[in-house]
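Reviewer has doubts. Consider these tokens.
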Amino acid sequence: MAVDILPVAHDARRPAWKRIGTMREAGLIAIILSLCVIMSFASPHFLTLGNFRAMLMSFSVEGIVVVGMTILLIVGGIDLSVGSVVCFSMVLSGSLFLMGVDPWTASLVGIAASAAIGCIMGFFVTVVGLNHFITSLAAMVIVRGLCLVITKGTPLSLFTLPPAFKAVGQGTFFGVPYVIVIFIAVVAVFDFLLRRATAFRKVFYTGSNEKAALYSGIKTKDVKFWVTVLCTTLSGVAGTIYMARFGAATPTFGVGMELNIIAAAVIGGASLNGGSGTILGAILGIALLSVVTSSLILLDVSVYWQDMIKGCILLAAVSIDHMLHKRKAA
């Protein structure tokens, strides 16, 4: 039985550039390029350095969260709490800083607390036996409540953050924003691990056929637990970067972020049924959503219509994923 799931992991181990011509990523690249060409005629402000920089900065931080979500979807889980955890990391770190704690230490505490949330969620999934959807839904509400409790519903002004810390979110490295450098590093590391590391191949095995993986000697509960922790930890990292970038922590930040994150991962090929997905595809998915959002803003489309359009894109992506799985099962 274990043999049936080996091709998935084997395909994931192939370098991204070898998969571009034959997989979903090629279609996403074509769509993104087509949108860019269309928008270059529709708006004179689209093909500008400032607009592209804004898009890169926007999806780079969300892209860090997408990496964690993609790996969690591959194992067969989902996390609806990522937006709340990003906010919680910001709020907790910001509050500690205002209490006199060094911002670097405060950030580490925020990331560790985010990982702890993942541990609690992982416990309820693997020990109690709840599914990821219900567990993360509850966590989303609870963690958002914690954000409001910590701040008392008032945004935290963190303009006194030291320049060295602000540089993480606002500075550049040879002209390239640190945010983008961190994003590229995270993507490169986890793309490599997902393709080459034995521990991460178990993620595919578990998501493809959990019973077969269990019979093969894989501790599937451990895999699901640590992937859940990884997702919330990366969300915590994104939260501290946002704090450095904006110099503030708002208790309502990240509301609805899970929609973008899940949509990007699914558009990029990650299956809601588990067992498939790539980091490259997910990043192209978040890039596509970023281009769409930028285009709608430049075309002066109402923010209410923007949310509806993103929802339709997510519905289309999930429908395509469902039909592909039905075709494979037939």
Remarks:
- Residues 25 and 281 are 5 Å apart (CA to CA).
- Residues 1-12 have pLDDT under 50 and may be disordered.
- The chain has one domain: 2-35+46-323.
